[in-house]
Amino acid sequence: MGKEKEMAGQDEMQVDALDLTGGTIENLEAEVVSVTQGGANQITASDVELRQGGVFQVEGEQVTLDHVAAGTVRGNLVSATDGGIGIAVGEDVKLYNTQVGATIGRNVDAENSSSVILLAQEVNGTVETMLDTQGALLAGIVSGITIGLMLLIGRMFTRRR
Q1: Looking at the domain assignment, is residue 150 inside a domain?
Q2: Of 72, 118, 126, 143, which is most buried with the most CB atoms under 10 A?
Q3: pLDDT (tens digit, 9 = 90+) per residue, 7-44?
């Protein structure tokens, strides 16, 4: 994968390939990124692999996370094991022992995972959700009707004065 680099507190980096062990980096753009026991604010790459670290935002064609805490993850293929993600968006999303706030994908494969909101065309495996695709649609409709009624009632009271 190229030279292994140890860094601490780097701000920005643009390279073809990076293998980071330890340390943190603010913004990283590369073709191939591998981070072990480190972190980043933002990573944009074709192929991203993170192990035992954290990232606020990551975007790539193939994103693989292992024991990682992440804010937003977006990719064609997103795979996460034993971690936590705020929002995971991908064509194919694979979750193993992972907790996600919102999962959005065409195909979601999950094993012993949970997602507060799950929006997917096809779901395989065991995933615990608070709102699945139908539940989210129903919650949106009910919320829209409730807010509409509240605004209508509020207008009625303000016109009488």
Answers
A1: no
A2: 118
A3: 444 555 566 666 767 777 888 888 888 888 988 889 99
